[in-house]
Structure formats: structure tokens, C-alpha cells
User: Fold these one by one.
Assistant:
Number 1:
Amino acid sequence: MDAHTCLGEPRLLISHEALRHNAGVLRAAVGDSVRICAILKADAYGHGAAAVARTLARGRLADALAVANLDEASALPEVGLPVIVFRPVENVYVGRQRNQLEEAIERGWTLTICSAAAAGDVARLALARGKRATVQVKIDTGMSRSGVDDIEAKEVIEAVSQQPSLRLGGLCTHFACADELDDVATAEQFRRFCEVTDGWVDANRTGRRPIRHAANTAGMLLHPDMHLDMVRPGLGLYGIDPMGPATGRQLKPVMKWVAPLLMVRTVRKGTSVGYGLTWTAPRDTRLGLVPVGYADGYMRSYSNRAKVIVNGVAAAVVGRVSMDLITVELGSVPSAQQGDEVTLLKDDPASPASAYALAELGGTIPYEIFCRIGSRVHRVAVDEVAAEAPERAVG
Ligand SMILES: *Cc1c(COP(=O)(O)O)cnc(C)c1O
């Protein structure tokens, strides 16, 4: 998206500079010998996976990319990095998944396997195409979500290693409580993972160790002893600390969400606003209209609670958030006028409009705040925006 074509529209400004910075912070946390697999699922947590992939590849800031499913893998640009698909392969012969798997095998993506049957299915598909498919075995060590349980894991790993058309690209698990300090569950998961995989590495006929990985952002930051061969940061890359804003880590939020003040009007004391007339002006004041609503991911639960930033000053969202519009009270911002930029989500962890603050208000986590931001909001690289001459709507 060209930054100019959507000037004056709701936009997500993506700072590739901040992305590079965060990748550097994460690299420093693991050192040079541990690989970094950047998590780009859900359109890079709403940041735009294609642009994020290019920036990471260009700066050699990641060693691999991971996405949730095959559609997301297909949508990635070819940037010369290995691609891992997290969703476990099952139901190979059902519908379009088979065509997608053939594409995955052609393009060398790493597929996730949690059963011997799935290993056999992928092996047959690869064989039929004269290819070798790369797979990783996901082991459930206590989260009880996806993965083969640690008792059957050896069988599945064996099944993979016996198929000439499969290459064992990795062994992995996922922590349930990595963001909790001093947490016994994570230590136990790690112990179980090592118990299964250490043994197998010794018995490995090829003599090559498959890479092992377990840690997401919280896991890699809080548990330096659990980095193994690779870490899998998502949230941290986008500049958010899974343990909250107060930890003092030098992560910079990558995303800033802005929209124009569509209209400014003066209303009298006693005027009520929005569906249900849930807010009434306590004095004569000015109201601003912003073309963003819950359809864009600006949650209805922010009604009468959230703050936006206008000309550097916090302004309250008043009345209900509707599908496509919100109203803000501009009593605190006398300078505000039509066309000014309103910041709905600020790239400053301490702002009342930070991802942390909005998550708190919405009863959720920053991950969900990002993923909800809809496709009507144009994603643009802030570096492009910075290059523009400042413009102001004539009003
Ligand atoms: C989403 C995901 C991650 C990244 O988690 P963050 O908390 O965002 O760092 C890592 N591994 C797996 C398997 C995931 O699904």
C-alpha cells in the first residue's frame, strides 16, 4: 500500500525500524548460536506478514519464519528463509488440504506431525512427487493441546525417521505457562521434552541431530536455560513484553493505529451521544467523530472508557463505540480541528492508548488487540510515511 493513497484514512503505521530493533533485542537475549524462528501467523499479529517477512529477511534478523496454516504459508512472499507450518497435518486426503500439502512439499515448507498415520500420509505424498518432505514432530509435554503425548512420541519420531521420503527437520513442544516467573509447570514440561528427545538423539541412526525448540517470547526471555537450538518469538518481535510494560526490557511497539478527525462540532451541556445515549455532556464542549469502530477491531467494550490521543493530548471516547464510528470529547484539546490525526493505539508502552492499556480495558491480552484490527485499516510502513511532506486537510 502506497502511503499517499490512504493518507487521511484509518491506517496502521508499521515501524520496520522498531521491528529491526526488537529483533536485535531478542538476538542479544539468545546469543549467536541459537536460531530465531520469527512467528508470522495471523498476518504477523496483524502487522502485515509480507512486509514483516521482507524486513526480517533483508536484515538477516531471523533464521526461519512460522505461520499457523498452509494458507498463511502460501501468502508469504519468497524471501529465502525456511517456513514452518504449525497446524498439525491430519486428514491429508480431505478436500483442498491435499493440494496445499503438495504445494508445501514442492516448496520445502516444514510440516508439523503429531501421529504416525500423518507421517505415513505425508511420506506417500512426497514419494508420489519424487520429493523429500521436511517434517517436525510436535510433542505434547503438558499443555494438552496439539502434539503427540510424550509416551507415544518415540513411536512417531521413529515412524518419521524410517520413511525415506521424510526428513526430520525438528522436534518441538510448546509451554503453557512460560510467562509465569518461578513456574514449576514449565520446568516439568521442559524436563519431559528433554527426556523424550535426548534419548532419541542418542539413538539417531543418521548421526544428525534434528533441531529442538520450545520457547516463545516469554519462554526465551524468562528461561535462558530452555533456548535449545531455536526460539520462536512472536509478540516480542512486535515490541510487546508478554510480562507487561513494567519489566524495563527495551522492546519498541511496532504498530501505531491512527485515523483522521472526520468532523468536529460543538454541543451544549446536556447533549447525549451514541447508541443508547449512554453519555451526556456535563458542560458545553466539542466532540470529534473518528471513522473507526468495532468492525475494525476497536472494541465495543471501550465505550465510555478508552482514551485516544489527539495532538499529543488524551481525549476520552464518549458514548458507545459503534460499528464504523466513535465519538471523542475534545474539551481537553482546544487545538483539535477537522483533519487532525487521532491515535487509537499508540506505540508507547506508557500511553493510556497502548496495546497494554487497551487489552486491560477489553479484558484481553495485547495479542488479541492486534489480531482484531480489521482489513479496512490500511497497513503502511511508517518509514514511507516519514518521507511524506506533512499535510493538513483544509477544513
Ligand atoms: C504463537 C506461537 C509462538 C509465539 O508466541 P509469542 O508468545 O507471541 O512469542 C511460538 N510457538 C508457537 C507454537 C506458537 O503457536
Number 2:
Amino acid sequence: MTRPARVVIDLAAVQSNLCRVRELAPGRKVMAIVKADAYGHGLVRIASALSSVDAFGVSCLEEAQQLREAGISQPVILLEGPYSAGELPDIQQLGLDIVVHHKSQLDMLKQVQLAAPIKVWLKIDSGMHRLGFEPESLASVWQALHQYASVARPVNLMSHLATANERDNPITQRQLQIFRQACHGLQAEKSIANSAAIIAWPESHADWVRPGLMLYGVSPLQDATAAEHGLVPVMTLRSELISVKFLPKGESVGYGASWRCPEDMTIGIVAAGYGDGFPRHANSGTPVLVKGKRVSIIGHASMDMLTVDLRSQADARVGDPVELWGANLPIEEIARHAATIPYELLCGVHKRLSFIEHGQA
Ligand SMILES: *Cc1c(COP(=O)(O)O)cnc(C)c1O
């Protein structure tokens, strides 16, 4: 692509982040979560860099198919299970595991005839109230599943935490307790920990941990940076200055003419905008690195471009490198300025950009 906007993916960072997961949860199996195109990083690219994990978690059959076509042989878990009974023969053939979270899926499994049974993770709703069976019904559903010819034994058990990213929130303790009680006496492997719980709630680690965000080198907790957790950012969004100009005091910049120069000043135009996945809501003051030095965005990003205040960088030139987030500028900070979360920014990076890999896995 001729446009200088690029996504750089650091594959060595992915592996280093996996090592961090293993340090924090020693001896536990790792289900690497690579849904949503590996949080925007590229599904096969990331899964290939994580070849030593025990399993991958995805959100649909098509993602699982891509992994199998790329030769990935580990278990692949469909985190929302099958959406319809018609998927089950393909799921069986591809050797995928499924999460079963709703009664409608029990009916599918009861009726279907398959060449071989499917591995199931039974999901309990321990309090997030999105997916899963009521704690009271868990044991009976677990036992019922063991009677189905389409289901492999044993059926594993899982749940998901709503507030693990808040160290003081009592909801997490309650969810862990509900999960523990509901699973009591059931001989199966268990999993509840996402990235935040891997870091902040060691008692949640169980048999399997399910890291997502932290594998991509982003902090799942607000109270510390990725670097403080020993995580290395995997994605860097970068571009270049394509225009530098000097404007007199009072002139406005960009659509809506909403931002005005408070004094005579130099501004720069960066080839990156919301059409690339840079958030339009990022406010004036959002940091950007020009030649490694911090400057601020002025006004709002447009589709292909955004404007920066170059008062502190009088020597800036067209062609100077710009980092929008990544290795040297935490995406957590950009997310805060845009009133969103890093997950949304990562997933929103546009596929039209060129992706460059470095730090071979
Ligand atoms: C997305 C997801 C995860 C990973 O969450 P992170 O906060 O990114 O670590 C774990 N488990 C399930 C079921 C998920 O859907």
C-alpha cells in the first residue's frame, strides 16, 4: 500500500507475553483467546506465534476453520458454542470443542447423530448474566450431557468473570465462590480466569486459564500499565506526517472549523484517521508520537487524516514517522482519551491497512 499508515505486529512480544502468563499461572493449561481476528492482530498470524499453547478460543466456526486450514492442530474451542444444529457435523469433523451455555444447545446435541462425539465445555452463569446455566441446574445438566451419544466424556466446566479488572470489587469473590460450589464434586477440568484474573486473582486459575488482552501486551487492569505487568505491546499503529504548515493565530483547522489556533503555530497532518480504526472520539490533547516525541491531536480525526500540534517540534518535516499507539505509546492511554477501552481500538483496526510482522516467532 502506498499510504504510509501501517500496523506493525511484534511476534516476539506475543511469545514474551505468553511466558508472562505461564509465570503468573504456573502449571495451568493455557487457552489463548484469539476471537475477533485475534483482537484485530490477525488470527492465523497470532495463533502460529503461540504454537505452544494448549488450546485456542474463537467465536465461530469460520475462525476455527481458518486455524485448521493453517495446520493448527491444538484443541479449538467455540466460545459461544454452535449457533445452530447444522454446524455440528463440521464441528465434529474439524475436531473442535464447543461451549454449551443454553438449553437450546442441549436440544441440538440430544438430537444430532454424529460420526464421533464432541468435546464440550459446560458454561455456568456465576453472576455475569450473559451466557450460562444457573448454578442450581449445573450438576443435572452436566450429568444429562454425559448421557448424550454426541458428547465426549468428561464434560469440562467454565464460567466468565464480570469485574476481574477491578481489584476491590466483591463481585469477583462471589462469582468464584458460586463457581466453586456449583462445580463441587464434578470430576472435570475447570476454567474461569481471563487476563485480569490471571494477574489479580490467583485463586481463580483452576485447571485452565484463558488469556486474551494480556497476550497482546495490553494491561487488563486500570491501576497499572502493561509494562508494570511485564507485558510488551504487540501492535503498533504508525504512519507519517504528510503535511506541515504554519498558521496564524485565530485560524481554524479541520471539519466544522471547531479548533482554532491560540497563537501563530505549526501544525502537522498525519495519514491516519477513523477509516483506519483511529477513534474519532479521541479528544484534543490525545498524545501522538512524532519522531518519538509526544505531541497532541487537535480537533477530531477525520477519515484518512488527523492533525497534530507541532508547537513543541519546530523542526518537524513531511515524512517524519508518527506512532498512534503501540510499542512506545500505550494504547490504554489513547483509549482513555477516546472514552473507550483498548479492546475496542484493537478490534477496530481496519483490514485495509498493511500489516507488517517483525520479531519472527
Ligand atoms: C474474550 C474472552 C476471554 C479473554 O478475555 P480477556 O479479558 O481479553 O483476557 C476469556 N474467556 C472468554 C469466554 C472470552 O470470551
